[in-house]
Amino acid sequence: MANDPRDIAFTRYDGRRGLTWLAESYRMFSRHRLPWILLLFGYYLTLWLVDHVPLVGVLMAPMIKPALSVGFLAGAWTQERGGRPSPRMLARGFGANVTTLLLLGVVFVLGVSIALGATALIDGGRLLDMLYGAAPAADADPTGAARNVQETLASPRVQLAMLFGALCALPTILALWWAPALVVFQDAPMLAALTASLRAAVANWRASARYAIGLFLLGGVVPTLVTTVLALVIPPPVNATLAALIVLPYLTFFIATLHISDYVSYRDVFHAGETLAPIARSSGSAQ
Predict the structure, then answer these.
(1) Cβ neighbours around 118 below 10 Å, total
(2) What letter would DSSP give residue 89?
(3) pTM to 2 decimal places
(4) Other beta carbons within 10 Å of 224
């Protein structure tokens, strides 16, 4: 067990590596699309079900995300060795390391909560009021409510607050990026995993930045561009239907690739040049 994060070796790469992670992740997805989509569906269905547990679901859902994400790590590990991902792998994170993985979920909840709370320093709490304020009455004007949201998001101070909140959340995001994989594959304790993930992400800041830009372009710009072009050239309501038929499958592929990239980038950064151990046919699982 690596108790000291300095004992967890990692490799530094140049910026081009960030896009390589996404390309390799998509190649893995494209070889077994249906199993990956089923695993993805199971992941979000589980989160949705937990989120709707009365009283505690809202807190439990984000807390189990690191444990549940182990299913994607196990799927990629298995495929890399000649096997196939399976929805059953979603249960892999609730084994020997479940306590540490759940603690990572607590760190996620606390980190994001602090980052959201910090936005009030910039906009006086307008963003928090929009997100967590009292729900509009049933007879309230939906058009007025939508207009209020648009006006809030269009405010320069709210936009600055969102940027500030994202910067505050960045250390938490980077610390949790590879932490579940370090816990599962290297048996690292929580603090060692968080610290090693943060150190490796910062050391690979060029690759991390290109990776983030790639995610922004593929996950945000491309769907928006497709939807906008269809709205301009095709009359409603056909444009909305066509956009859904194009964008929804695209986003499914993108999100599956995003989850796989956690393993691909971890493998590249922390196990560069290592040969693959053959899969144990009796178990077919990540060791």
Answers:
(1) 15
(2) G
(3) 0.87
(4) 11
